[in-house]
């Protein structure tokens, strides 16, 4: 399995069974090195409706004839814009051709904006994605929550993708606590340094996990890791 950081909270995941993109905020993402028109995927997974996550989801899904996999209300919102979708909800899992997806809780909001018009698109989520026998946990945007211990107990997480930016999500110290509960083999920090208000030093996150069994991988946009 190959995981590529596309900047902010966007990741591509490729395996022998297919490829997906998560939270495809590429257009307007100052960290992005890929263009939405270059993305070739079997599915587009979206954690919530905020523009820095929903991003180019409708365009990529439409161009690839790929479903948007997201909470029910968000899939319906995208369907009204012409994108195909597979609605799910928190706690539910489903086996797709490319692998299994299960939605987890995330403590955050989920409103989509078009200009000044706000549409509530249900609850935000996190994602557990299993492909090629490897499990990735994308936390979405969330604060720290104690049920991460349950997620860690019930899933052997190979790679956790955790926000560290603070202000809108967990900051570094809470993300360090999250690693203690999730016990992933590898953790990749995300959702930092895209905007001034979420400026963080990922080296501080790495240093605070120096004694942890979890390996910290700081990825530059466009950089990949293999699991
Ligand atoms: Ni958000
Ligand atoms: Mn966000």
List keywords for this structure.
16 strands, 7-stranded mixed β-sheet, Metallo-beta-lactamase, Chain A, 20% helix, binds nickel (II) ion, 6 helices, alpha/beta, binds manganese (II) ion, 227 residues
Please describe what this structure looks like.
- With 227 residues, the protein is of the alpha/beta class.
- The chain has one domain (2-219): Ribonuclease Z/Hydroxyacylglutathione hydrolase-like (Metallo-beta-lactamase, Chain A), CATH 3.60.15.
- It has six helices and 16 strands.
- The chain has helices at 51-54, 57-64, 72-79, 148-154, 172-182, 202-208, and strands spanning 2-5, 11-15, 18-22, 43-45, 68-71, 85-88, 93-95, 100-105, 111-114, 117-120, 125-131, 134-138, 159-163, 186-190, 215-216, 224-226.
- The strands form three sheets. The protein has a seven-stranded mixed beta sheet with strand order 6-5-4-3-2-1-16, covered by helices on one side. Strands 7-8-11-12-13-14-15 form a seven-stranded mixed beta sheet. The chain has a two-stranded antiparallel ribbon with strand order 9-10.
- Helix 4 (148-154) packs parallel to helix 5 (172-182) and helix 5 (172-182) packs across helix 6 (202-208).
- The mean pLDDT is 98.
- The site of nickel (II) ion has 6 residues, from loops.
Number of domains: 1
What's the CATH class label? Alpha Beta
In sequence order, what are the helices and strands, one letter per element? EEEEHHEHEEEEEEEHEHEHEE
User: Considering DSSP H and I runs of 4 or more, what fraction of the residues is helical?
Assistant: 10-25%
Q: What is the rounded Rg?
A: 16 Å
Q: Trace the largest sheet across and list its strands.
A: 6-5-4-3-2-1-16
Judging by the overall fold, what is the CATH architecture? 4-Layer Sandwich
Q: Uncertain segments of ≥5 residues (pLDDT<50)? A: none
The shape, in one word, is: globular
CATH level 3 topology? Metallo-beta-lactamase, Chain A
The span between the termini is 5 Å
Ligands, ions, cofactors: nickel (II) ion, manganese (II) ion
**CATH superfamily label:** Ribonuclease Z/Hydroxyacylglutathione hydrolase-like
The strand count comes to 16
Count of DSSP helices? 6
Residue-averaged pLDDT, rounded?
98
Largest sheet: 7 strands, mixed
Please state roughly what percent of the residues sit in beta strands, choosing from under 5%, 5-15%, 15-25%, 25-35%, 35-45% or over 45%: 25-35%
The secondary-structure class comes to alpha/beta
């Amino acid at each position: 399995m190959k995981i590529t950081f596309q900047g902010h909270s966007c990741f591509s995941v490729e395996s022998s069974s297919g490829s997906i993109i998560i939270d495809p905020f590429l257009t307007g993402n100052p960290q992005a090195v890929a263009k939405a028109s270059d993305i070739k995927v079997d599915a587009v997974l979206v954690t919530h409706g905020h523009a820095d996550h929903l991003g180019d989801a409708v365009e990529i899904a439409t161009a690839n004839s790929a479903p948007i996999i997201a909470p029910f209300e968000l899939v319906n919102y995208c369907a009204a814009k012409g994108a195909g979708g597979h609605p799910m909800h928190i706690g539910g899992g489903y086996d797709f051709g490319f692998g299994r997806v299960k939605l987890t809780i995330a403590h955050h909001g989920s409103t989509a904006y078009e200009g000044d018009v706000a549409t509530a698109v249900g609850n935000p989520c996190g994602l557990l994605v299993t492909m090629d026998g490897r499990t990735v946990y994308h936390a979405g945007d969330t604060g720290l929550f104690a049920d991460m211990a349950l997620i860690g107990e019930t899933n052997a997480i190979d790679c956790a993708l955790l926000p560290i930016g603070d202000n809108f999500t967990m900051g570094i110290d809470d993300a360090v606590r999250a690693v203690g509960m999730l016990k992933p083999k590898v953790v990749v920090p995300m959702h930092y340094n895209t905007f001034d208000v979420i400026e963080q030093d990922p080296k501080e996150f790495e240093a605070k996990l120096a004694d942890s069994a979890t390996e910290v991988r700081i990825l530059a946009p466009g950089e990949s890791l293999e699991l």
